[in-house]
Amino acid sequence: MLATTQVLIHLYYDNDKIVLPIDPPGPIAGPDAAANGRKTALDQLKLKMRARVINVITRAVAISILGPFVYALCIRWIAWPWTVRIARMIWNIQRDSAPPRFPPYHIGLILRSLTAGLMLLCIWEFSNAAFSAYVAQAPLKNGQPLTTESRDPNGSLLNGLESKKEIPKTFAFWELLYITQRFTARKNSIFSEIDRAGGTTWAQILNVCVVIIQAISSRIIDFEHPRASAPLSGQALQKKVEELPRLVPPIKFGNILSSPRQPRDSREKLESTVGSIAKSYGQSGQTSNPISPRAKQAVLFARDRLLTNDQKNAINPAGLRSLFFDYVNRFLSTPTIGAPFRQTFRRRICRVVLGSPYNQLNLILSAIDSIANLALASLREDQFGTVNKDLPLMIRTLANAIQNIERVIQQMPIHWTDTEFQERDGQGRRIEEVELVLEHLRWGLRQLLQEFGPYALELGLGQGELQACRGIVGIQT
User: Fold this and answer.
1) In the list 55, 306, 351, 363, which could disulfide-bond 356, CB 3.0-4.6 Å?
2) What is the average pLDDT value for the chain, to the nearest integer?
3) Of 414 and 101, which is predicted with more confidence?
4) What's the per-residue H, E or C state across the chain?
5) What confidence score (pLDDT) does residue 440 get?
6) Which of 84-98, 108-122, 280-294, 390-404 has the lowest mean pLDDT?
7) What is the pLDDT of residue 23?
């Protein structure tokens, strides 16, 4: 019983969620500049356990007091017969033995349940908090990126960036962000490795980052313009029809006015009997309305004489529909039971912008900041000029993502189950996670335009595109 309660609470409040820290956009002055203001895993563990001590004690006391009653009323009558059968194999027990009428309510049992429950809950909560705190640590080892000790550090990093699994991919992007922010030597190696299989290291990193950012625009376009399933061709449709099971015999050709032949076997007799019954109902002389005109007039007369106007409005189809939706809205407005059934604006916009079934916020932010930091560093550290030719692609990708996100925020309709949504002068559509993505996108685009704006036309960016991108981030021309 305690374990079931703990599992339900754990799943409902999503206690196994791991929150990764998010650094502000931009390069960091030193390797430990951002880590100085961040709590260590031990400090995070202490804070989490202090907040959960009261919950653990309350849960253990409630289960130890209410447990015997719930056990006696719901579990004992099911478990007792099976326990007796197993016990008869070992001891001599009378057949007419029945469970006691009163629950096993004793101070000693309550104390033992309280002690065992407290210890179990402390173990469960401590292990969960410790795992969440230590897993969310930066991908560093001895103050260096995890791939530093590899024979091919950048090759191992690329393998992680291209991984199909979410966890290795997220930590690989996090490590890439740390490299672009804090480790100059590793950052220079990204620009200098131009003979790697599959393209330069910079080109491969740019490709995986651009794919992550362009996926935002793709999800938004798919949401705004759902793709309709392509119609089947004639042959495919005929093949699909032939694969369906046949429910009636094939159509008979010939003289349909001639008398049918007599059925010969039991199957044909059954088909003939069922067909005759169906025809008798279909060819009956009764009217389509089973209520006679006099009975209908009597019902209408009684409705007009006995019911008030409000009662008449309540029982008409529109009134019944309104009453049904009123009860549905009341159910959806309940904070605990109705919450899982509400399609809130926050949930829907995050699913479109950040992806599903898992939130890719850290992955997206790391990709945005990484290519922006590398592009800014290329002004001083890119000896071979490998970054310049890709600047138009980066600027267009960031600008398109900003425009698409802003458009879907303003145009996404509110779902009818979202009973708690409030506009609040447009602030109701501003979601923290989505605004964070917009902040990093605007920062990256602004930095690229400020640093490379004078050379944008020579690099392949049109004058109109340049003006539009400047207007997105508010740069005066």
Assistant:
1) 351
2) 83
3) 414
4) CHHHHHHHHHHHCCCCCCCCCCCCCCCCCCCCCCCCCCCCHHHHHHHHHHHHHHHHHHHHHHHHHHHHHHHHHHHHHHHHHHHHHHHHCCCCCCCCCCCCCCCCCCHHHHHHHHHHHHHHHHHHHHHHHHHHHHHCCCCEECCEEHHHHCCCHHHHHHHHHCCCCHHHHHHHHHHHHHHHHHCHHHHHHHHHCCCCCCCCHHHHHHHHHHHHHHHHHHHHHHHHCCCCCCCCCHHHHHHHHHHCCCCCCCCCCCCCCCCCCCCCCHHHHHHHHHHHHHHHHHCCCCCCCCCCHHHHHHHHHHHHHHCCHHHHHHHCHHHHHHHHHHHHHHHHHCCCCCHHHCCCHHHHHHHHHHCCCCCCHHHHHHHHHHHHHHHHHHHHHCCCCCCHHHHHHHHHHHHHHHHHHHHHHHHCCCCCCCCCCCCCCCHHHCCHHHHHHHHHHHHHHHHHHHHHHHHHHHHCCCHHHHHHHHHHHCCCC
5) 95
6) 280-294
7) 84
Q: Which of 189-198, 313-322, 395-404 has the lowest mean pLDDT?
A: 313-322
pLDDT score of 413 more than 90: yes
Half-sphere exposure of 47 (CA within 13 A, CB side): 8
Distance between CA atoms of residues 434 and 405, nearest Å: 8
Residue 373 has pLDDT above 90, yes or no: yes
| Interatomic CA distance for residues 81 and 97, integer angstroms | 9
- Euclidean distance between CA atoms 80 and 308, whole angstroms: 58
From CA 92, how far away is CA 296, in angstroms rounded? 73
Q: Which of 371, 375, 365, 367 is nearest to 451 (CA)?
A: 375
Structure token pair of residue 271 = 């088909």
Pairing label, strands 140-141, 144-145: antiparallel
Any residues with CB less than 8 A from the CB of 223 and at least 6 apart, and which? 352, 408, 412
Are 214 and 397 a contacting pair, CB within 8 Å?
Answer: yes
Residue 281, amino acid: Y
Q: Amino acid identity, residue 421?
A: F
Q: What is the pLDDT of residue 36?
A: 46
